[in-house]
Design a protein that fits this description.
Oligomer: single chain
Shape: globular
Distance between the termini: 98 Å
Bound molecules: heme C
Number of strands: 22
Helix content: 25-40%
Largest sheet: 5 strands, antiparallel
Radius of gyration: 26 Å
Number of domains: 2
Strand content: 15-25%
């Protein structure tokens, strides 16, 4: 046993050294041949297919191709990483917050696993590293996890403490372009936001990167690994917004106690310093359904609150009084007031926001509606806010993500932007009294239809979250001439 282990370590060290030399040589070669340089934090490389040349010409310079992750040429092993439970010993509150987050479930997420299986089967496992590089960085770099491991009992960590606090640098801003450095000169190192942090357990290295959106960008910008189509662009959406200009980072909204609360005074560990703000680790987003699936009811409520803080809705009623029998056109304005990126953002196949608009008479009879759910989808004609991805023949793609070749449409609302949608309906003749106009702004992370297709019917119930709503009356004059 021990002997075997020893041999394995020697072998690993050998592979590690060889990998060192090999990747250095390859890097040199590619720099000379392709004139490619590793982009820096400040670089604004994005959609316009900037990565295409890098990916197509230099796959060997990417040790985890098609993921852009790297390890400074080192072969990483599981022993180099602690489990989150080790950190819990001292950072109890942070541990509890993180444990409820979607990122802690990034590998065990059933929707992810189902889509990974499909994508892997359709591409002869060519996409494995791509997906795993973001959903389980330690699984990919230290455990050589593949899709086949989904059937085994071993569960690699998702986006855990050790992932984020061992990222020493980034080499771009998409597709997992992080540099993972679990130790320095044989010592365990944690990169963090303070220059004066001192821990009895680990070395703490100050990292400005951790306090900036560019840190999140490596995973929150997804480009198609082989044709560079921009699939998910949360970081780019932010970087082109007023929030970037004002210096408001992802951390300022996602690492605080909740919407509107910007500081969280205290200590991050019992022996730590008292500080004005300790970064919260809930990473609240909008995925209420996933939190409910894992029985995390407090997190589900946080996500509802986050969604409610993102938008406002108004009904813009016409100035002149309408008559029974007339056509009425009502405008509804939806504004993105709280999110530092488009609403919705992220996972484009699923995320959808829409207006459910109803008109009733004074006794509650429904006169008009647009935005109901039928067969697990928003009905045809619904005014929704969503990205539609397409294949090379312009067919809409919702689950076969590997065949994505273009963005067909994007109706989502820009940060600090708004959208106006309108509805036209006939006011019944002989109507008495005002009409009631009700507009609800709804969100789901994926349609019930999509989930049923991925997991099978009845496996996971999707919650529709009402982000905000408005009710207003519309004066209508009785059409006397008709009598
Ligand atoms: C024995 C206790 C202990 C353990 C175990 C421990 N830490 Fe710490 N850690 C501390 C203390 C104390 C500080 C300093 C806090 C301060 O001054 O605000 C700290 C600070 C940090 C910081 C902030 C560094 C900075 O530059 O601001 C990070 C990040 C961190 N720890 C991550 C981890 C991770 C990840 C683990 C698990 C692998 C872990 N810690 C395990 C005690 C511990
Ligand atoms: C001004 C505050 C603010 C900033 C800055 C911000 N966000 Fe958000 N974020 C929100 C709010 C509010 C929501 C909930 C609404 C929604 O789902 O879009 C959200 C939702 C999300 C979601 C889940 C959304 C979905 O629809 O799937 C992700 C992922 C996310 N943010 C990541 C980021 C990243 C990464 C950054 C930095 C590049 C960032 N956010 C910057 C406020 C912010
Ligand atoms: C998705 C990435 C991510 C994960 C996962 C993560 N952290 Fe952090 N952590 C950060 C970032 C970013 C900061 C700095 C935020 C800032 O100050 O702007 C931070 C800050 C900290 C700090 C310093 C807190 C302060 O404000 O003084 C500690 C300690 C810490 N993390 C420990 C942990 C532990 C323990 C875990 C796991 C239970 C963990 N982190 C998981 C990204 C992460
Ligand atoms: C190593 C990759 C990685 C890094 C770095 C990373 N994320 Fe994530 N993040 C993910 C993945 C993967 C998910 C989706 C997990 C799932 O639902 O399966 C996610 C989910 C989230 C969500 C929840 C979205 C929802 O729909 O509810 C938020 C919010 C979020 N991340 C914010 C951040 C912020 C802020 C940072 C930077 C401080 C960051 N992330 C850094 C990979 C990463
Ligand atoms: C560059 C990093 C990155 C890569 C590569 C990546 N993802 Fe993700 N994935 C994320 C982030 C970040 C989110 C969360 C976005 C959000 O909340 O809207 C996410 C969300 C998801 C979700 C939605 C989960 C949920 O519960 O709502 C699924 C499913 C998913 N990814 C599957 C995959 C598959 C399959 C692949 C490979 C073909 C893949 N991802 C590749 C970063 C990545």
């Amino acid at each position: 046993m021990a002997d075997n282990n020893h041999r394995r370590i020697i072998w690993r060290t050998f592979i590690g050294r060889w990998a060192d030399v090999r990747s250095l040589l390859l890097l040199l070669l590619t720099v000379i041949l392709a004139g490619v340089s590793v982009s820096t934090m400040a670089d604004n490389d994005k959609w316009v297919q900037p990565e295409r040349s890098v990916i197509e010409q230099t796959p060997n310079a990417m040790p985890f191709y098609p993921s852009r992750a790297s390890t400074q040429g080192r072969a990483l092993t599981p022993e180099m990483f602690d489990s989150a439970e080790t950190c819990r010993g001292c950072h109890q509150q942070i541990y509890q917050q993180w444990q409820g987050s979607a990122m802690a479930q990034a590998w065990v997420d059933p929707i992810y696993q189902a889509l990974l299986q499909r994508a892997s089967a359709a591409t002869d496992a060519k996409v494995d590293n791509f997906c795993i590089g973001c959903h389980s960085p330690i699984g990919m770099t230290a455990h050589n996890i593949t899709t086949a491991d989904l059937t085994k009992s071993f569960t690699p960590p998702g986006v855990s403490c050790e992932v984020c606090h061992n990222i020493s640098a980034v080499s771009g801003n998409d597709n997992g372009a992080y540099v993972l450095t679990p130790s320095e000169n044989g010592k365990r190192v944690k990169y963090g936001p303070h220059r004066d942090a001192a821990s009895p357990y680990h070395q703490s290295n100050y990292s400005e990167l951790l306090t900036k959106s560019e840190f999140c960008a490596v995973c929150h910008n997804v480009s198609h690994p082989f044709n560079s189509t921009p699939i998910e662009r949360t970081y780019d959406e932010w970087s082109e917004s007023a929030y970037n200009e004002q210096g408001v980072q992802c951390q300022d909204c996602h690492m605080t106690p909740g919407p509107g609360v910007t500081t969280n005074p205290g200590k991050s560990a019992p022996m730590g310093k008292q500080r004005d703000h300790i970064a919260s680790h809930h990473f609240t987003g909008g995925n209420v359904t996933l939190h409910k699936h894992f029985g995390q009811h407090e997190m589900a409520e946080r996500a509802r609150e986050m969604l409610r803080s993102a938008a406002t809705i108004e009904v813009l009623t016409p100035e002149q009084t309408l008559l029974g029998g007339e056509l009425a056109t009502i405008k509804v304005k939806v504004s993105n007031v709280g999110a530092g990126h488009k609403i919705p953002t992220g996972f484009p196949e699923g995320r959808e926001m829409w207006v459910d608009f109803k008109v009733t008479d004074s006794s509650g009879n429904l006169i008009y509606r647009s935005g109901a759910i039928r067969n697990g989808k928003t009905e045809t004609g619904t005014r929704n806010f969503k990205v539609y991805l397409g294949d090379k023949d312009n067919n809409v793609v919702d689950l076969d993500v590997w065949s994505v070749d273009r963005v067909l449409a994007d109706t989502r609302i820009l940060p600090k932007g708004y959208a106006i949608v309108d509805y036209t309906f006939t006011i019944p003749t002989g109507i008495q009294g005002p009409l009631v106009l009700n507009a609800e702004l709804n969100y789901w992370p994926f349609s019930q239809h999509l989930v049923d297709e991925l997991l099978g019917p009845g496996k996971l119930a999707v919650e529709v979250v009402q982000m905000t709503s408005v009710t207003q009356s519309l004066a209508v004059q009785l059409q006397l001439a008709q009598k």
